[in-house]
UniProtKB/TrEMBL annotation:
Name of protein: Disease resistance R13L4/SHOC-2-like LRR domain-containing protein
Signal peptide: none
Domain Disease resistance R13L4/SHOC-2-like LRR: 47-120
Keywords: Leucine-rich repeat, Repeat
Keyword DNA-binding: no
KW ATP-binding (keyword) present: no
Pfam hit, one: LRR_14
UniProt xrefs under InterPro entries: Leu-rich_rpt, Leu-rich_rpt_typical-subtyp, LRR_dom_sf, LRR_domain-containing, LRR_R13L4/SHOC2-like
Length: 325
């Protein structure tokens, strides 16, 4: 056996084995899977700073300590199948970390400091109790795989997560997603598994190529959960037996089968941009453009993006033909 790797799984340890202190200068990988270890002690983080790989899956760990940041060489951390309820802010200091496995715990959220993990490539969070993801997760520019399956209280994923430069695999099956993003980094994304969320009423066409044939067949199931009203709205559609769920900013939604009105042209959008400029309010502008367009120009945007890093202006119109059940 390689002296730098310790395989101590399935040994009935009831605490972190102190024998590790005798070889702390040599060991770089430790496997302690399926024991009964309840905590990661401070001495372990202080003395095992050379570790690059740590597997503690299937133990009884209730929290990851702040001292985890002392494992400065850690590249892979597996704490899945424990009872961890929160991650410390100091996890953001693990700058070499590329794999973080936290599936089957009791996490309800992630610290925003997770966005500091610039080398993080794989993040596994399935079977937790997540209710939301921090927008800072999109700052993990090396992230390639994000697994969120079976987080029953997760209602949405920030759109910016779908546009990260290297994201290739994203899975969030059997959650409570209400909306899917209309923007995806199609240059990098290869696999998307999002469609077994029975609160969804439609999916954007940009995701259509990721659909499996049988996904079109399932019937939506009304969930007995309180849906958060501040970022979505229900819209009645004659073609559907139930209301459709759309972003709250889309206050005017047109059915292309019934309306001759089309979405705003590029010219109109450009003119609306001018609505914030002083010269756009002068009499000469009113005299230069049609009165209907001037009225819409003066109406301006209806909102701004709720994502603080974005904050772009949002206008009010969409056409129902852009989406499909």
């Amino acid at each position: 056996m390689n002296s730098t790797i310790l395989h101590w799984s399935y040994r009935d340890f009831r605490q972190m084995p102190e024998e590790l202190t005798t070889c702390s200068d040599e060991v770089v990988e430790v496997y302690l899977k399926e024991n009964f270890i309840p905590a990661i002690p401070r001495w372990f983080c202080e003395q095992m700073s050379r570790l690059t790989f740590l597997c503690l899956a299937g133990n009884l760990i209730t929290c990851v300590p702040e001292e985890i940041s002392l494992l400065i060489n850690l590249e892979s951390l597996d704490v899945s199948q424990n009872v961890v309820e929160a991650l410390p802010k100091s996890v953001g200091k693990l700058q070499k970390l590329s794999r973080l496995k936290l599936s089957e715990n009791k996490l309800t959220g992630l610290p925003k400091e997770i966005g500091q993990l610039q080398n993080l490539a794989i993040l596994e969070l399935s079977k937790n109790r997540l209710t939301e993801l921090p927008i800072e997760l999109s700052h993990c520019l090396s992230l390639q795989e994000l697994i969120l399956d079976d987080n029953y209280f997760l209602c949405r994923i920030p759109t910016k997560v779908f546009t990260m430069p290297q994201i290739t695999y994203l899975s969030a099956e059997r959650c409570n997603l209400l909306l899917l993003p209309f923007i995806v980094n199609t240059d990098s994304v290869e696999f998307v598994k999002l469609f077994k969320n029975y609160t969804l009423t439609h999916y954007p066409m940009v995701l259509e190529r990721f659909m499996q044939p049988n996904y079109d067949q399932f019937n939506a199931v009304q969930q007995n959960r309180t849906l958060k009203p501040f970022y979505y709205q229900r819209v009645r559609c004659d073609a559907s037996s139930q209301n459709l769920i759309f972003p709250a900013e889309l206050v005017t939604i047109l059915d292309r089968r019934k309306s001759l009105q089309m979405p705003g042209t590029l010219v109109e959008i450009a003119l609306r941009r001018c609505s914030t400029a002083k010269w756009s309010r002068c009499v000469s502008l009113k005299d230069c453009i049609p009165s209907e367009l001037y009225a819409r120009l003066r109406s301006g945007p209806v909102a701004t993006c709720a994502s603080i890093p974005c904050s772009n202006e949002i206008f009010s119109e969409c056409v129902l033909g852009l989406v499909k059940r």
